[in-house]
Design brief:
By secondary structure, the protein is α+β, with helices and mostly antiparallel strands. Helices cover 44% and strands 21% of the residues.
Length: 419
């Protein structure tokens, strides 16, 4: 089946290129300008040399895709209505001179003095890589995963960048398609077609064994079947909680919690899990203490369980996952350590919604534990990873529930990918 919007978009790109070729020889190349002068001059050039046809502006504004034209410094010189509306701007003028990450509120956009494209995390950004390739004269299409500062929102985009020239100047025609819902659907399908189906198969297997033996011999199978059923229900609840959390509809129920007792419960539960086979979980009591604090026990268990599961999956056979909890000022900090280090390119993307080292359709574990912690529990989730020291994830939460509301927004805005 033909992708009609893509056909229209390609036609528009070709039309723009033809318009520019007709005018290419009319004027001399521009001399270097300051950023603001360059943006203004490039925008004027587009209007004078490209958008001379009266239908181009309305056609681009009618597109569902978000469209930008960038100069050779990757700064916006044109934006269509879809892009303006997507970021809640009042008009196109507000976007001129800014870069894509700044407009989309990317958490990394202001990490470097150079702005968007200058941070270490930008070396894995699909939009940045596509723009750089296009500046070398080659069109490119990539997926781009963005974590946004406000409310730790996640955005998945398909970015299509085409190099163009206006009066000898290199520019980029960029089209963005929001594929966030597609990624959410893929994750949901994976959960129900893979994880839930596998667990249901375990339940069915034990049930068959129970029917093949007498009542006394069936008891162990009944216990394992019950445990698998509990896992099945938990997997379904986890997906429901994530969907509710992303819609801003997750209900939080505070209760008093003993940090050390919580770690013991989780350690015992995960020690029986298949992923822990030939691996051990140890609570470092020399660096742990019992901290009584208030939070949502169900959500907190979900976050820490994800940390422990990920650590077990990363740990080689006969390896040890180490847990700690202790009070740090007015907060309680949990840590989960495994002996394996991450490649830097993985570490830079670990909290992005659809990124995973496990294959297509994975990638919700680290994203969900950070999003739930920072959006709903006023927490902060960070990590360190290095060769020789392995990887340690940290989750820190206020001891007193009464301080949650005043800390929630600042913590969310300060969230980073590493400690």
């Amino acid at each position: 089946m033909f992708n009609r919007p893509a056909i229209v978009l390609n036609s528009l790109q070709q039309a723009i290129q033809l318009e520019m070729e007709e005018h290419r020889d009319k004027h001399e190349n521009l001399q270097p300008q300051t950023d603001s002068e360059d943006v203004s001059r490039a925008a004027d050039l587009l209007e004078r040399e490209v958008f001379t046809h009266p239908s181009l502006h309305p056609m681009l504004d009618a597109m569902l895709e978000m469209v930008l034209v960038l100069n050779d410094q990757r700064r916006v010189v044109y934006a269509n209505r879809a892009f303006v509306d997507s970021i809640g701007a009042d008009g196109k003028e507000e976007l001129l001179g800014r870069r894509v990450g700044e407009l989309l509120d990317c958490v990394h956009a202001l990490e470097s003095p150079e702005g968007c494209g200058g941070a270490e995390a930008c070396i894995t950004c699909g939009a940045n890589l596509a723009n750089l390739k296009a500046l070398r004269g080659r069109s490119d299409r990539r997926e781009c995963r963005i974590l946004r500062c406000r409310d730790f929102d996640a955005l998945d985009l398909l970015v299509n960048v085409t190099p163009i020239q206006v009066e000898g100047r290199n520019m980029l025609f960029c089209a963005f398609t929001d594929i966030s819902e597609q990624k959410r659907r893929q994750a949901l399908e994976r959960t129900f077609f893979h994880d839930v189906l596998n667990t249901a198969g375990v339940v069915a297997g034990y049930t068959r064994l129970m029917t093949a033996v007498d009542a006394e011999k069936a008891r162990p199978f009944a216990a394992k079947s019950y445990a698998a059923t509990e896992t099945l229900i938990d997997e379904i609840k986890a997906q429901r909680e994530l969907c509710s959390a992303e819609r801003g509809e997750l209900e939080v129920h505070p209760t008093e919690i003993d940090s050390l007792e919580l770690l013991r419960t989780l350690s015992e539960a995960w020690a029986q899990h298949e992923v822990a086979r030939n691996r051990s979980i140890d609570i470092d009591l020399d660096h742990s203490e019992s901290v009584i604090f208030t939070s949502d026990l169900v959500l907190l268990r979900r976050v820490l369980a994800n940390m422990i599961k990920n650590a077990l999956e990363a740990t080689p056979e006969d390896g040890v996952v180490t847990l700690t909890c202790l009070r740090v000022g007015g907060t309680v900090e949990f840590t989960v350590h495994n002996p394996t280090s991450m490649p830097r390119t993985v570490a830079l993307q670990i909290f992005k919604r659809s990124f995973s080292t496990k294959g297509k359709g994975h990638g919700l574990g680290t994203y969900s534990m950070k999003m739930i912690s920072e959006r709903y529990l006023s927490g902060k989730v960070t990590f360190n990873s290095s060769t020789g020291n392995g990887t340690v994830f940290r989750a820190r939460y206020p001891v007193a529930w009464s301080v949650l509301d005043e800390h929630l927004e600042p913590l969310a805005k300060r969230s980073n990918t590493s400690a």
